[in-house]
Amino acid sequence: MKAIDLIECPRDAIQGLEKIITTDRKAAYIQGLIDSGFFHTIDFGSFVSHRAIPQMADTAQVVQQLNCEKSNTKLLAIVVNEQGALAASEYTKIHYQGFPFSVSETFQLRNTKADRNQAFERLLRIKEISETAGQQLVTYISMAFGNPYADYWSADLVLEWVDKIAGARVKIISLADTTGIAKTSDISILFKALINQFPDITFGAHFHTNSLDWEAKINAAYDAGCRRFDGAILGFGGCPMAEDELVGNMSTENLLVFKEETDLVKIEKLKESFRQLVL
Asked: Are 120 and 102 in contact (CB under 8 A)?
C-alpha cells in the first residue's frame, strides 16, 4: 500500500448546495469519515461569512459534536480572515486552520475581498492566531496551475509566492488546481521544484478534475514526490468557475484505489453514506 496522506473535504463537497443539511446529519457523516480510519485529516467546515456560505454557518456546532479521541484523524477548518481564525482557535478539537491564498489577483479579490499583498498580511496574522491556540496553518495556493481570468501565471510566479510563504515558516502548503486546467507537465515541474527547494515543507495536491485525467494528475504529483492528496467522496463539489461542468473534486475512491486500499466494503459504505447525506 502506498504511504500517502489522504485529506477528505466534505466542506468543499457540500458548501455550494442550496438545500441546507442539518447540523446533526453533517456531524454524523463527518464522524463516520473519522471512524473509517482512512483519512489523515478531514476538511470539515469553515469559519467564514454565513451570508456568503450559508451551508457552513453551523461549523461551530458541528465541531462540538465530533470526537477524534479514538482516532488519529485530524480536523481542518478554512478561514479567510482574522475573525474566522479567532473563531476557529476557540476549539481544541481543530488541529489545522486552512487559508486560501491565490496567485491570481482576480480570484484572491473575489474569494477573500483582498488583493495578494493584503492576503499575505492576513496569512501572517492568521498564522500567529492559530499557533497561539496550538493549531497549525495550512496554506492553499489557489489557481496554482493557471486561471480563467487572463491573469499572468507562470511556475516562477508560484515559486515566488511560495518562497514568501515559506519565509513565514508555514510548514504545509497545498497546490490547488482550482478550475481543473492543470497540465501534467506543469504538475511535475512545480512539485519537483518546490520539494527540492523547500525540503522542510509538506506539499499537498488539491486537484479538481474530470473522470478522464484524474490518474494522470495523481501520478504526475506522486512521481514528483507529493504524498499529500485532497479528495471528496464521489468527486462531489469543485469550483463553480470551472468551464467544464464535468470537473469536480478529485474522487476519494480513486485516491483510495491509487493508495491500494483493499477494504472495498468500507469504501462502498462511505459512498452510500454521502449519497444519503446530499439527497
From this structure: no
269: which 3 cell numbers?
A: 459504505
Q: Confirm if 149 and 107 have CB atoms less than 8 A apart.
A: yes
Give me the residues of the chain with pLDDT under 50, please.
240-246
Neighbours of 25 (CB within 10 A): 13
What b/e readout covers 171-187, taking b as 16+ CB neighbours within 10 angstroms? ebbbbbbbbbbbebebb
Residue 52's domain comprises 5-278
What string of DSSP letters covers 118-171? HHHHHHHHHHHHHHHTT-EEEEEEETTT--TT-----HHHHHHHHHHHHHTT--
Residues 6 or more apart from 99 whose CB is under 8 A from it? 78, 79, 80, 122, 123, 126, 137, 138, 139, 140
**Axis crossing angle, helix 252-259 with helix 214-223, rounded to the nearest 10:** 50
According to DSSP, residue 232 is labeled B
Total domains present in the chain: 1
In sequence order, what DSSP letters do the residues of 48-109 get, joined into one string? Answer: S-TTT-GGGTTHHHHHHH---TT---EEEEEESSHHHHHHHTT-TTEEEEEEEEESSHHHHH
Task: Determine the pLDDT at residue 172.
Answer: 98
DSSP label at residue 263:
-
Q: How many CA atoms lie within 13 A of 101 on its CB side?
A: 31
Separation of CA 204 from chain center: 9
CATH number at residue 246: 3.20.20.70
Predicted TM-score of the model (pTM):
0.94
For residue 167, what is its C-alpha cell? 519565509
Are 115 and 108 in contact, with CB atoms under 8 Å apart?
yes
Write down the pLDDT at residue 150: 93
CA distances from 37 to 71, 72, 96, 229, 263 (A): 7, 8, 18, 16, 11
